[in-house]
Specification:
Blueprint (H helix, E strand, L loop, with lengths): L4 E5 L4 H12 L3 E6 L2 H14 L4 E5 L5 H13 L3 E6 L14 H29 L3 E5 L12 H23 L5 E5 L4 E2 L2 H5 L12 E2 H14 L3 E2 L3 H11 L3 H10 L11
Parallel strand pairs: 1-2, 1-4, 2-3, 4-5, 5-6, 6-9, 7-8
Length: about 270
C-alpha cells in the first residue's frame, strides 16, 4: 500500500482516528477530513511521529455543498487513491417531528448525499486502475427501525443498500475494487457523548473498542466481504432479529426510546 492515498472523513475523533492510525500502519498516505482543523492537525502530528507517511488535514463540513465539492475534486484528481472511508456521521435523540428540520436535513446530507457524491468521485479512478477500496461506515441500526431514531436508521439502511448495489456493479464489471458497509454496534468513541445519551443502561458486553471494529473492517475488506458486523454477539443478534415476525419487530422498535434517553433522563 506504500504511496497510495487513503481518505478518511470524520477523522478528528473516534473510529475516524482509528482508521487513520491503522491505515498509516499499512503504509497509506492520508488525507483526513473533518470540521475541526485543530483536532485534525493533532491527529496528523501523532501519525507522522509514528509512521513514515504523509498526513494532510482538510477542514470541511460535508453537509455544505462547497466543502463537499472541494473534496470531490481532490478525489477525482488523485491518481494514487487507494482507499476511501466514509466515516463522517452523527445521530439525534427524540421523535422526528420534534427535531429541528435543519438537523434532520444535515443528517441526510451527510449520510446519504455526501456518501453518494464521494463514492461517485472515487470510483472512476479506482476502476481505471483496477484496485482500491471503499468503506461506508453504516451501523447495526441499519437492520432495524426504531422510534426516536427515524432518520438515523433510515439513512444507515440506505447506506447498506447503496453499498450492496455498488458491490453488484463492480462484480458485473469484473473489477478488483472492493466496497464494504461496516455495521458496528455500540463502540467506545465520542459518538454517544456528543449525542448526550445516557448509556448507563447498556450492558458492558455490548461495547466494543474502536480499534477492534476498525481491524475487523479492514480485514473484511481484504477478504472482499460486503457487510461487516464486528462482534459475534452482534452478528447473532442480527440473524435472530431477521427471523422475528413483523409485528414483534414493530413492538421492539416502539419501545426502543426508553433505552435511548438523554443524560438528564429526558
Amino acid at each position: 500500500m506504500s504511496g497510495e492515498l487513503a481518505v478518511v472523513t470524520g477523522a478528528s475523533a473516534g473510529m475516524g482516528v482509528e482508521f487513520a492510525r491503522q491505515l498509516a500502519a499499512q503504509g497509506y498516505n492520508l488525507l483526513l477530513v473533518a470540521r475541526r482543523l485543530d483536532r485534525l492537525e493533532h491527529v496528523c502530528e501523532e501519525i507522522s511521529a509514528a509512521h513514515p507517511v504523509k498526513c494532510e488535514p482538510m477542514a470541511a463540513d460535508l453537509t455544505r455543498d462547497a466543502d463537499l465539492a472541494a473534496l470531490e475534486q481532490k478525489l477525482r484528481a488523485a491518481t494514487n487513491l487507494g482507499m476511501l472511508v466514509n466515516n463522517a456521521g452523527f445521530g439525534t435523540l427524540g421523535k422526528f417531528h420534534k427535531q429541528p428540520i435543519e438537523r434532520e436535513d444535515q443528517m441526510h446530507r451527510l449520510h446519504v448525499l455526501a456518501t453518494m457524491h464521494l463514492c461517485h468521485a472515487a470510483l472512476p479512478g479506482m476502476m481505471e486502475r483496477d484496485r482500491g477500496g471503499i468503506i461506508n461506515v453504516s451501523s447495526i441500526a441499519a437492520f432495524v427501525t426504531s422510534a426516536g431514531s427515524v432518520s438515523y436508521c433510515s439513512t444507515k439502511a440506505w447506506m447498506n443498500r447503496f453499498t450492496e448495489g455498488l458491490y453488484m456493479e463492480l462484480k458485473l464489471a469484473g473489477s478488483h475494487v472492493k466496497v464494504e458497509a461496516l455495521c458496528p454496534g455500540y463502540t467506545h468513541t465520542e459518538f454517544h457523548a456528543t449525542l448526550k445519551m445516557d448509556t448507563s443502561g447498556i450492558a458492558k458486553w455490548m461495547w466494543l473498542p474502536a480499534d477492534r471494529v476498525v481491524r475487523e473492517s479492514l480485514e473484511g475488506l481484504r477478504q472482499g466481504r460486503l457487510i461487516v458486523i464486528p462482534g459475534l454477539r452482534y452478528r447473532a443478534m442480527r440473524r435472530a432479529y431477521s427471523l422475528l415476525p413483523a409485528r414483534l419487530k414493530l413492538a421492539i422498535g416502539t419501545t426502543a426510546p426508553r433505552y435511548r434517553r438523554r443524560q438528564n433522563g429526558a
